[in-house]
Automatic annotation (TrEMBL):
Region (Disordered), start-end ranges: 444-470
Entry's Gene Ontology cellular component terms: endoplasmic reticulum membrane; mitochondria-associated endoplasmic reticulum membrane contact site
Regions of compositional bias (Basic and acidic residues) in chain numbering: 445-470
The keyword Membrane is assigned to this record: yes
Protein name: Leukocyte receptor cluster member 4
InterPro entries registered for this protein in UniProt: LPLAT_7/PORCN-like, MBOAT_fam
Pathway(s) where this gene product acts: Lipid metabolism; phospholipid metabolism; Phospholipid metabolism
Major location category of this protein: endoplasmic reticulum
UniProt KW Iron-sulfur keyword: no
């Protein structure tokens, strides 16, 4: 492991026991201590580059203070433009920020855009309350306008400051105001989340030692046969998953130990967003809690869900919620694949300027279009047994698609990514295009178009049910 990874590991490991101590603090002390610890981590790891995050925070505070009506669009423009400056600072003769500053800047961008949306919602509902004299129906809406101190406290809260998960400002406020945090569940769910971390970590170290990413860039790699080159991307993505499974499960444990994101199960919380319904338990009724609000990874479903579009929902779940609520609805397209493409483009930009990100993320809409075409033209025609076989094949291709796209994500450079993809003959792109063509050919006749239309409706029904279930 690199020195930076060891620092990440140390911060993650320390956040778990520290979190249990925060349960004993009063709200004002908890807020101040979380801010102080977060600033200590930020300054200690980023040094002078802490000023980048501070500029982002102060700029957002000015926006929500003086132009809250346009806050969502202005904050998105401000934070994303600052990301561009942040990544090109060397053009202006400034020192290049390190990986810690980059991690903090990424998460801060999500927080600031979300905060601006929450503040606008607060003002809008407040105006409705004045005009209708009725209680605001917004679930999880703000009860007060955040001060500058509140904004800074939320921005630099030590919990997940580098690793995530993303959480809304209201989730932060609910955490501060927990009436009896000590009595909330902590030890058992924390251990439950940590139990697989040593396994993920060991698998990461073991497999990475035999399949280092750097080997892909060598001339010797291209001398191996096709099967070896194809298998290599499978192992690279396995290493990639194990690394993030370990990191994100550890980060969730840090949230759980502190009690952040702990809500009654009846609140039907979503990762990133928090409660979706008002929940008031009956007196003297035992209340069960969960930590779905800060759940960032579903390891099992990431590996074993069938579809590409579902796989995204189980990976980096709090960021997916952010994209779904703040980017996807505002896409300048109506078609699902195009809206997904727009969202993936924004996601790629958020991750960085490396071309490999864009090549990978923009392959996702193609894969989604391919699986939609095959579901609507092939799967709908099959019986139960045939659909089961179809789903197994679909799952296998989904995993290979993610293996393939991962290579762009980790190789970063366009030349390295395209060199690798060409070494396996752009196999996933070809399969996706063949699936789309097959889907269209099988819907050629009038009767076929009708059956294909029914298949597309089935796909849409599946999507609707899925979104409601989440």
């Amino acid at each position: 492991m690199s020195p930076d990874e060891l620092v990440y590991l140390g911060i993650l490991a320390a956040s778990v026991p520290v979190g249990f101590l925060f349960r004993y603090l009063s709200p004002p002390v908890k807020q101040g201590a979380a801010l102080l610890l977060g600033l200590t981590i930020t300054i200690g790891t980023c040094g002078i580059h802490t000023l980048h995050s501070l500029c982002t925070v102060l700029g957002t505070w000015l926006i929500i203070t003086f132009s809250w009506r346009n806050g969502p669009s202005l904050s998105l423009g401000w934070t994303f433009l600052y990301l561009l400056f942040f990544r090109l600072v060397t053009w202006f003769g400034l020192p290049s920020p390190g990986p810690f500053a980059n991690a903090i800047q990424l998460l801060l961008t999500l927080k600031m855009v979300s905060l601006a949306n929450e503040v606008k919602s607060y003002h809008s509902e407040k105006k409705k309350d004045v005009s209708t004299f009725s209680k605001s129906p917004v679930v999880g809406g703000l009860s007060h306008k955040p001060s500058l101190y509140d904004v800074i406290s939320y921005s630099y809260c030590y919990i997940g400051i580098m690793t995530g998960p993303f959480f809304r400002y209201q989730t932060f406020v609910d955490w501060l105001e927990q009436p009896d945090a000590v009595s909330l569940p902590g030890r058992e769910p924390c251990l439950q989340r940590l139990k697989m971390v040593p396994v993920y970590g060991a698998l990461f170290l073991f497999v990475n030692s035999y399949f280092p990413l750097s080997y892909v860039r060598t001339e010797e790699f291209l001398e191996h046969d096709y099967f070896f080159r194809f298998l290599y991307m499978v192992m690279v993505f396995f290493v990639f998953r194990m690394r993030f499974y370990a990191a994100w499960c550890g980060a969730e444990a840090g949230c759980i130990s502190a009690g952040l994101g702990c809500y009654p199960q009846g609140a039907l919380s979503k990762p990133g967003g928090g409660p979706t319904v008002e929940y008031s338990p009956e007196p003297d009724t035992a209340v069960e809690y969960d930590f779905k609000t800060i759940q960032n990874i579903d390891c099992y479903n990431t590996d074993f869900c069938v579809k590409v579009r579902h796989g995204m929902r189980y990976w980096n779940m709090t960021v997916q919620w952010w994209l779904h609520h703040y980017i996807y609805p505002n896409a300048p397209f109506r078609a699902y694949a195009l809206r997904a493409g727009w969202t993936m483009l924004i996601s790629a930009y958020w991750h960085g300027l490396h071309v490999g990100y864009y090549l990978s993320f923009l392959t996702i809409p193609l894969c989604i279009a391919a699986e939609t075409a095959m579901e609507a033209s092939v799967r709908v025609r099959l019986g139960p047994g045939g659909q089961k076989v179809f789903d197994w094949v679909h799952w296998f291709l989904k995993m290979r698609a993610y293996d393939y796209m991962c290579m762009g994500f980790v190789l970063l450079k366009a030349s390295d990514t395209l060199n690798y993809w060409s070494s396996i003959y752009f196999i996933i792109h070809i399969i996706a295009l063949l699936c789309i063509a097959t889907g269209r050919l099988m819907k050629g006749g009038r009767g076929e178009r009708k059956r294909g239309s029914e298949g597309e409706k089935e796909v849409k029904r599946d999507e609707t049910v899925r979104e409601k279930a989440e």
